[in-house]
Amino acid sequence: xxxxxxxxxxxxxxxxxxxxxxxxxxxxxxxxxxxxxxxxxxxxxxxxxxxxxxxxxxxxxxxxxxxxxxxxxxxxxxxxxxxxxxxxxxxxxxxxxxxxxxxxxxxxxxxxxxxxxxxxxxxxxxxxxxxxxxxxxxxxxxxxxxxxxxxxxxxxxxxxxxxxxxxxxxxxxxxxxxxxxxxxxxxxxxxxxxxxxxxxxxxxxxxxxxxxxxxxxxxxxxxxxxxxxxxxxxxxxxxxxxxxxxxxxxxxxxxxxxxxxxxxxxxxxxxxxxxxxxxxxxxxxxxxxxxxxxxxxxxxxxxxxxxxxxxxxxxxxxxxxxxxxxxxxxxxxxxxxxxxxxxxxxxxxxxxxxxxxxxxxxxxxxxxxxxxxxxxxxxxxxxxxxxxxxxxxxxxxxxxxxxxxxxxxxxxxxxxxxxxxxxxxxxxxxxxxxxxxxxx
Length: 440
Description:
Layout: E1 14-15, H1 17-27, E2 34-37, E3 45-46, E4 50-51, E5 61-62, E6 66-69, H2 71-74, E7 83-91, E8 105-109, E9 121-124, E10 153-156, E11 166-167, E12 178-180, H3 188-196, E13 201-205, E14 209-215, E15 219-220, E16 231-232, H4 235-245, E17 249-256, H5 260-270, E18 276-280, H6 290-295, E19 307-313, E20 315-316, E21 320-326, E22 331-336, H7 340-358, E23 368-373, E24 379-380, E25 386-394, E26 397-400, H8 409-414, E27 417-421, E28 427-428, E29 433-438
Parallel strand pairs: 1-19, 7-8, 14-17, 14-18, 15-16, 18-22, 20-25, 23-26
Antiparallel strand pairs: 2-13, 3-13, 4-12, 5-11, 6-8, 6-9, 7-10, 19-21, 21-22, 23-29, 24-28, 25-26, 25-27, 27-29
Helix pairs in contact: 1-7, 4-7
């Protein structure tokens, strides 16, 4: 670890938010690339440039339902003096054997069908009588309803210039073009392009597998009956959802009781499916802070690895934090505080960037903005601590929600931003400009 391992640091040193984050991000490495099917690669980062193997569209094709004709045959056409052409057949989308259009001839053509040899332009069906001999029509009838439309005569009431209503071969992308460059995040339009150029699989960094584990003998699963002194386990749900939202495949492990041996064996069991482990609770200085007890001395014989270091951060909420690597594979583990708001703020600041680093993304942080503080009275902030207050952000203004308590989960559900109060600022007043982290 970049801090030199947990045996050498002074136990009472206060770490800054940036030092802790730097330690996390220098330890976490992007996952190795794998070849994935297109839909499995959604949300993943492409690790190679993808070239276009064939032009799109691969052939000149019609952008309308109508008739493929020669320009000269319709050049003087009008409502009064229509051009009468012989219909030599149908060209449907997907047609392989194409009929030839000679002088004085027309082929009925469907949208997306290849322009047949001999034809130079497409006349939309609305400019013709549709072969019915009764003046302009509003659309083309289904072949099953009027197969005779593919034969006989068609009257054309307007001229068309060369290559009107024709999509040229290669007008979308040309063979040899760069389709997508390495580093592109594959969203729906990128997956559409890959499919369109015939690519069924791509090399990407996979989505990280994140195991979320909450600790505390007082925790009960939702839907169960609460007894005296018990609360529902919300942290594991919040952090699993947040990990998925960040792009991970997340596994929630139900609450583990405050027993160091049970916790240690649960973590060992879970390591096989983890690229990153997140625990919540049990990290401060109480007698029952089981994560600390279980992991401070891990490494030597039980779970080999770099070990986990517990530290105090100069921040509020979220002062107690743990970080390290465990197991033979040196899986990164972030130990977050148990307070719901502390754990969520810690997730946003430390875990989300770690997940996005594993994914190989360039931009691992939430966007930030400057905003004007709108509040009734000045807000105080502890000296020497970077404080993160929940807020709602709109149109360049941010309003605090809830109090400063780290347990107020109802206020968190209203917030879409964190208001950042720097270490050296002890008070922010209404109208002050503040930095906000946009939670999106």
